[in-house]
Amino acid sequence: QVQLVESGGGLVQPGGSLRLSCAASGIMFSIYAMGWYRQAPGKQRELVAAITSGSTNYADSVKGRFTISRDNAKNTVYLQMNNLKPDDTAVYYCNARSPGLTTYIYWGQGTQVTVSS
What we know:
Blueprint (H helix, E strand, L loop, with lengths): L2 E5 L2 E3 L5 E8 L7 E7 L6 E6 L4 E3 L7 E6 L4 E6 L8 E8 L7 E3 L3 E5 L2
Parallel strand pairs: 2-11
Antiparallel strand pairs: 1-3, 3-8, 4-5, 4-9, 5-6, 7-8, 9-10, 9-11
């Protein structure tokens, strides 16, 4: 059974920082591409950042502020979020995508991030 369990969300003031974690089980974590998505009320889910074994990519809106990383020994992916803005308020979801011709995609349950003074 595949599980992706996010943690680390919460309420933070503008300019503050949070670190999200996503612990994966039931998959060969090291070969999966991992990503963070977010969905704000009334908006579509959007990619925030993704990481494979050799590369990362970010949405333009978070470049220079967010950093995605992974620890394959712990089956965990992180999202360090600095200089948070009210527009970053959303539910953040962890995503795992398998390599190969047949793609398997898994989602976590989401963690709320609220940026407000």
